[in-house]
């Protein structure tokens, strides 16, 4: 998650843990809701991980990137969501300095991996459509595995330096709050690397993807006019192209809608302004919900995921050679 310059004295002086004013029933409902969202996030992404890992038909470059995204979303559901939502409900950080460090590092790691993975998915789709021969010859699952590993290692190295090596994180801690402090240069670098550059790349590439898809659909419709015997097959291809374009649009729009509110708040709301903490909290919740929504999108629009779920829930994945089953 993007760093924001924080003045420790401002936060520690202005922030204090308020007494809980909600009733016990509301308090329990909030915790049940938080647990339900976290559990849904964990289960949904775990099903994606099992599906892509188990069935050999799904070992494609695009699905390996989806697997990487699901792993980062799983980290959010297991570690980040429970700690952060508990902090919001209690209105006070009570888990101590060590857990604060763990929360922030995993949060930053999962966020940077997710954003860069979505950017890699955009690159993958663009190459697959714009240069299909190059893509089929050069972009193999092994190549994507190496790129994915590099993405995780880069994020690990980058976040460790940003948070710990230059002392930006460890010198900020006061009772009841868990925040990060960085200088202006580090904050600007992080904004560029984790938000502006990958999001700009995503928007540019998906714009080209939609143009290519539209061009393909136009060409297919042109064939329908001149070749009536193949009209049925062309209609299927036309429908497939449009469905792919709609799915890409949904994924990108949901991703940006969940991402933008937090970064806008980071830019316009000073962290020392305690009165506006609730605005930032709402933005962070939207940010986390992207990890919950992704598996739901797969379940609604990806036929292979629907078939995989059916095989998983009927326990057919435990059969011999179940990894060779047809799920496409």
Automatic annotation (TrEMBL):
The chain crosses the membrane at residues 28-52, 64-85, 143-165, 191-213, 244-264, 284-305. It is a multi-pass membrane protein. PROSITE patterns: G_PROTEIN_RECEP_F1_1, G_PROTEIN_RECEP_F1_2. Keywords: Cell membrane, Disulfide bond, G-protein coupled receptor, Glycoprotein, Membrane, Receptor, Transducer, Transmembrane, Transmembrane helix. Residues 44-298 form the G-protein coupled receptors family 1 profile domain. GO terms for molecular function: trace-amine receptor activity. It is found in: Cell membrane. CDD domains: 7tmA_TAARs. PANTHER family: HISTAMINE RECEPTOR-RELATED G-PROTEIN COUPLED RECEPTOR (PTHR24249), TRACE AMINE ASSOCIATED RECEPTOR 19P-RELATED (PTHR24249:SF381). Belongs to the G-protein coupled receptor 1 family. This is Trace amine-associated receptor 13c-like. It comes from Carassius auratus. The gene is LOC113037814.
